[in-house]
Each structure stands twice: as C-alpha cells, then as structure tokens.
Design brief:
It is a single chain. The protein is of the alpha/beta class. It folds into 3 domains: 19-141 and 153-167, Chitobiase/beta-hexosaminidase domain 2-like (Chitobiase, domain 2), CATH 3.30.379.10; 173-543, TIM Barrel, CATH 3.20.20; 572-720, Sandwich (Jelly Rolls). The strands form 6 sheets. It has an 8-stranded parallel barrel, surrounded by 5 helices. A 7-stranded mixed β-sheet has the order 2-10-7-8-6-4-5, with helices on one face. β20 (413-416), α13 and β21 (433-435) form a beta-alpha-beta unit. It is globular. It starts with a helix and ends with a strand. The structure holds acetamide (ACM) and zinc ion. The site of zinc ion has 8 residues, from α11.
C-alpha cells in the first residue's frame, strides 16, 4: 500500500518535471526587514522570462538593475521598456507626493502586476533591492544557471506572493568606511565594495584617501603626492615589531578613475565622501614636501602602524595653503555634499616645540584653559579654517570626534568613533552626528573568540550579536537632541587586512546587522530571527562569490568550561588588583569555571603589567593537591607575553604561606606564535586549606619595539587539583 502510493507520487512528479518546473517562491523576510508587509491570498504574480519591466522617466537605469538582478538570480534577464498605460508586468514609478520622506518606497503585488513606487529614484532603487533579496537563490553555480534553469528545462520562473510592502529608512545617513591607504585596494574591488553597500541599502561610502602609510588620490598641483607619497618601501611585520618586509607597497587612484567610481556609485544611489585626514596622519604627504612639517624632515612614507608624531605644521602658511589646495582639488573631483577632514589622533609634541606653531598660537591670541591646551586650540584653528574652505563651496565638513577638543564650529558634523560619548556631547552642543563607535562598529576587530583560527587582525572582539545590539540613539539625549544623530556607519581599517577577500570577510555578515540598525533601528530585536534572515543574504553572497564569515551559521561548540576542581568558585582574593581597564568582574573571573577566550579585552581575562598576579584561593577545607594550571593569552603586538614564572604557596591559616613549587617558562621571541597557552606546575602532594598562585611577567625582549618596558600578562582560570 505504502509502496504503491510512493510509486504513483514519483511518477506524477516525474511527468510534471518533464513538462513544466514548479515555480519557486519569493519571501519578503529579508535584510533589512521591510517595515510593513501585508500579504493576501490572491494568486501569486508569476515572474517569468517574458515578464516586462516598464519604467517612468528617470528610472531607466533602475529598470536595468532589476533586469540584471533577475538574471543573476533566476537566470534570465527581463526586457525593459518605457512605461505606456497600464500593462501587465513590473512598473517603476516615482510618486513623491505619496511619501513623507526621501528614499521611501512601496511595492504592490497583484496577480498581474508588480508596481514599485518610490518617493524618488533612490526609493525605487531600494524597492528593487527588496525584490531582488526576496527572490529564491538556488544553490547551483551561477555560471550554469541559465542553461539549467531556463533553456534546458522548460518554462520556469518565480512566484511573488501578492500584497503590499511599505518601507522607509530610519536614518538618512547610512554608511560604511574603507581605508585603502594601509593596504591599497584596486579600483575594481572598490566597485565590488560599492555593490555590497548597495545590496545593504547604504547611501554613503566614506573613502579614506590619505594616511601616514600612503597617499591615494591624484592631486594635479602636487604630483609628488602620488609619485612618492603613494608608495612605501616596506611594511612592519605583525603588530609593530622590529621586523620589516622590503616589499614596495602602494598605488593610487587617478582623478579620472575616481570620476568613474563616483558615477558608478551614483548609479547605485551612493554618495562617496572623500576623506583627507588632517592635521595628523599626514606623514606620506610630508615625505613628499618635508618643508610642510615642523622639523623639516626628512620623512618616509611610514612603514609602521600607529599614530605618527610628525604632523602638518599649523604655523606654516605654506602648509595651510597646501591643504586648502588639496581640499579644493578634492572638491573639484567629488561632488559630495560632505567632505571629511579627519582630525583624529593628532599628537601635539611637534607643535609644542615648533617656533612657527608657537608663533601662530601667539598671533592668534590662543590661551590654554582648564579644559584644553593651546595646541588643542591650534588644531581647532586648522579645522575651522579648512571648514571655511569647504563651506565656501556649499559643502559640509565631517570630522572625527577629537575635533570637539577645542572650539570647533557648530557646523561640523561629528563622527563619533572612540565610543558614543563624543557623539552625545556633540549632539548636546548642536552638532549633527554620525555614530561609528569602535565598541560596536569597527569591523577590523575580531568576530570570533577563537582567534587562533582567525586571520590576524588589529585586536578587539566584535561578534554579530554585539553589532546587532547597538543603540544608535543614546538614551542620555532628549528626543530633540536625538534628531542630531543623522546616521550610523561602520569602519574598516586595513593595517592587518591586505586583500579585498579579507575586507569582505571582515565586512560580512556584520554588515547585515549594521543594515538593520541603519534602516530600521528596531526597538525590539530578535537575534535568532535575524540570523535566519542573514542566511538568505548568505545565499546571495555565495551567488556573487563574496567572501564572508560563517560563524553565526555554524556556531562553534568548544570547551568553554574547565572541569570542576578544588579552586572552582571558591573565595579568591588578589593581593594586587589588575589594571583598571582589565579588571571586569575582578578576582572571581579567575576561578568561575569558564576558560579565558577571545581577545584580551573579551572580559574573560584579567590583565597585569609591571607586577605579578598574586591570587589566594580559600579551598574552604583542607585538601590534597599536586597540580596548578592556568591559561595565558599571548599577543606580542599588543605587548602581551607569556608568564615567566608560576609559583605555588600553601597555607593552613591563610596568613603564613610556604612555597611548594616554582616553575620558570621561556621568554617568547617575536617569531613565536601568539595564542592561548596553558602553564602547568606539578609538585609533591600537599594538604592545605589555602593555595596562593603567583604569576610573574617580564620586560619586553630586545626584538620587540617596546624593548625594556614591562610586558602585560593576561591570565584566566586558575585550576588546582
Ligand atoms: C580612527 O579610528 N582613528 C578614526
Ligand atoms: Zn609647526
């Protein structure tokens, strides 16, 4: 009985398959989640190869995009035509009067027609993105898609459930940043990055074009900037040790290439914001024009990472005119309403000693006060002067949050990166703000705790969950002040990211979480449901051969806890506290049963520098022991080394201790591997109530750039048995 039923079913299926493939179904559960989706049970719209796309004036390119996307996903391009009357098919329209804000859209799906109406062309474009992301992506290789799914297998297509979708963005500014200076990124890859942004409904691309380690934009008035400044003669190996490779690295974008890129982005409704970082991060420019620095040089295009002390001389009129010229040429190339002028990480040590800078401070009547130094105000002079140059051409400046240190003009938009505090202060003062805090939106940070199996990166720990929980509108602000938060952005710095494949790996899928914040800023967040929608995005990433991280799709189960031992969760005290920044929950982190994991700032390690970790555990009863083990993190670039010695003492009364074991561990060399390592001491069995463990570090060895300074130790989970 059962068998014959199966046979009949299989026969029917085969017959059906030979004549016509069943249509696959679109699903509107996408990233970002559309704000309103109302479906009905009318017969679905059938998107088939003969479906036509009709466009109203000004939407031809959008129609072509839709056709291309359908071809990418379903394997057949749709024909596009100018709109006439009320035909069946897909219709693209601009209806500004239907919407209360820019970039909004509405999609009506009926059995015969799909209408995408936008408040503007961008709105239509986002409607198209929604349709694109709703289409079912089959797992077959895209190169075979056409033949397999269409030509060879009979008529097929896709069903769009009928109903209505209404959607609009919460933030007007939705951006991502990219640093092609630390490692050069070829133009074609930058275009792929723009494709990634478009797929995530972003409209701002912050392009960081100047750095200590390389100048990347052709400036016709100063050709040396790219002849000399675009190349460095080697790069430090790892996290700023003393070893360098000798590979010349660099590249730059010509103004023609940039105009082409701007056009490419504009078609995708993305504005490119160029950044010239001032007055710090200018060493590559100084290498070309040493007279513009306080000391006169010589300077090299920097081969190290970090913050150079050599900055533009603020007291030198020639240097200021140089910057003005550069900004003017940048504005000739980029039509962006925003021009980013940096302002981050500008050490003042040269200015403090420079006669020209000091003369300028006098001339301007600048005085230090209880908040800021005279040199801080000198930086405000530079930033405000450049803001005037930018504003004279009808543009607005963006600066990193350091520009609040002084008296920056209220017209500047503040990009809050060191946290949200700068953004909060700025919004209170009336600045517009873009939130890009490193605590949640620095995509150059690790996205997994299993750093031994991740490509080396700058550090930090920023998993999807943390990005997704970010609240761009701080509760500390009034609703009126919150209106100054115009946008949200994530940044990708490339000190440790040398290929575009790696850029993609760091960007995705964290971009999915960012997109949800930018477009929806959802009040209630359901991480699990969100991850399900990310799976659909991942199918598109596969289709387009985008590289992306898969941690959230294959959650790793690893030994996160240690076996219960004599010390587990017993009273523990530290004779000296850890560094304040790395104290977290204090001593109890050391015997909470959970193993140290992730980066040094994951909260699972206690950090000590210049003195030993000295912990006393009360075992709460006399117990026999003969082993002590602990784990330590080694990240030499971050000055974190292994312990040099572990000492064990015991006591019966908690007051008088006697040493029972001491073991030395070798000092690491730069060539040794970073990672998490166990340090174990075995000794003659001893019975006692209290165990004291003393873990000592050492000074940084000769092959480290910080030679002679004390190394850090980061320790977790002391086990006793
Ligand atoms: C920055 O990350 N230095 C803005
Ligand atoms: Zn100077």
């Amino acid at each position: 009985m059962k068998k014959s039923f199966l046979f009949l079913y299989a026969t029917a299926f085969l017959l059906f398959a030979c004549t016509k493939q069943p249509l696959s179904q679109a699903s509107y559960d996408i990233i970002p989640q559309p704000k309103e989706v109302r479906l009905n049970d009318e017969k679905p719209f059938e998107l088939v190869p003969k479906t036509l796309v009709y466009y109203e004036d000004g939407l031809q390119r959008e129609a072509q995009f839709l056709s291309e996307y359908v071809n990418d996903i379903l394997g057949y391009a749709l024909n596009v035509q100018a709109y006439q009357g009320q035909p069946d098919g897909i219709v693209l329209k601009m209806v500004p009067e239907n919407f209360g804000q820019a970039e909004a859209y509405e999609i009506n799906i009926t059995p015969k027609q799909v209408t995408i109406k936008g408040a503007d062309a961008a709105g239509v474009f986002y409607g198209i993105q929604t349709l694109r992301k709703s289409l079912p992506v089959s797992p077959i290789d895209s190169s075979q898609r056409t033949s397999q799914r269409w030509n060879d297998m009979g008529e097929t297509g896709c069903q769009l459930p009928c109903g209505m979708i209404r959607d609009w963005p919460n933030f007007a500014y939705r951006g991502m940043h990219l640093d092609p200076c630390r490692h050069f990124i070829p133009l074609d890859s930058v275009k792929v990055y723009i494709d990634m942004l478009a797929m995530h409904n972003m409209n701002q691309f912050h392009f960081h074009l100047s750095e200590d380690q390389g100048w990347r934009i052709e400036i016709k008035k100063y050709p040396e900037l790219t002849e000399i400044g675009a190349y460095r003669n080697g790069t430090v190996i790892g996290h700023n040790g003393n070893l360098y490779d000798t590979i010349r690295h660099g590249g730059f974008y010509t103004q023609d290439e940039l105009r082409d890129l701007i056009q490419y982005a504009a078609e995708r409704h993305i504005n490119i914001i160029p950044e010239i970082d001032l007055p710090g991060h200018m060493q590559a420019a100084l290498a070309c024009y040493p007279q513009l620095g306080c000391t006169g040089g010589p300077y090299e295009v920097w081969r190290r990472w970090g913050v150079s002390e050599d900055v533009i001389c603020a007291g030198n009129e020639e240097a200021m005119l140089f910057v003005e010229d550069v900004l003017n040429e940048v504005m000739d190339v980029f039509p962006s309403p925003y021009i980013h002028i940096g302002g981050d990480e500008c050490p003042k040590v040269r200015w403090e000693k420079c006669p020209k800078c000091q003369a300028k401070i006098k001339e301007l009547g600048i005085k230090a006060d209880d908040k800021f130094s005279a040199e801080d105000y000198l930086q405000s002079y530079v930033m405000n002067r450049m803001a005037k140059v930018v504003e004279a051409r009808g543009r607005r400046v963006i600066g990193w949050d350091e520009i609040l240190e002084g008296n920056v003009s209220e017209t500047a938009i503040i990009m809050s990166w060191r946290g949200t505090e700068g953004g909060i202060e700025a919004a209170r003062k009336g600045h517009d703000v873009i939130m890009a805090p490193c605590s949640h939106l620095y995509f150059d940070y690790y996205q997994s705790e299993d750093i031994a199996n991740e490509p080396m990166c700058i550090g930090g720990y920023l998993p999807m969950e943390r990005v997704y929980e970010f609240q761009p509108l701080p509760e500390e602000l009034t609703p009126e002040q919150q209106k100054h938060i115009i946008g949200v952005q994530a940044n990708i710095w490339t000190e440790y990211i040398a290929s575009f494949r790696h850029v993609q790996y760091m960007a995705m899928p964290r971009m999915d979480a960012l997109t949800e914040l930018q477009w929806n800023n959802p009040q209630e967040r359901d991480f699990e449901a969100f991850v399900e929608r990310c799976r659909k995005m991942a199918q598109l990433y596969d289709l387009y051969h985008f590289n992306y991280a898969k941690h959230i799709f294959n959650p790793q189960v690893w030994a996160d806890t240690v076996a219960s031992n004599l010390a587990t969760r017993k009273p523990i005290t530290l004779r000296q506290q850890p560094a304040e920044k790395y104290t977290y929950d204090g001593a109890k982190v050391l015997n909470d049963g959970e193993l140290g994991r992730g980066a040094y700032n994951s909260g699972r390690w206690l950090g000590f520098c210049g003195y030993p970790l000295d912990a006393v555990v009360d075992l709460e009863q006399v117990a026999e022991m003969q082993h002590v083990r602990l784990h330590a993190l080694v990240n030499k670039g971050a000055w974190i080394y292994n312990p040099s010695q572990v000492k064990v003492l015991v006591s019966d009364d908690g007051e008088t201790f006697r040493e029972v074991a001491q073991k030395d561990f070798p000092i690491s060399t730069w060539a040794d591997k970073d990672g998490i390592f166990a340090f174990e001491v075995e000794f003659e069995p001893v019975a006692a109530r209290y165990a004291e463990v003393v873990v000592s570090g050492y000074d940084l060895p000769e092959d480290h750039s910080g030679f002679g300074h004390p190394a850090w130790i980061f320790v977790d989970e002391i086990e006793v048995w």
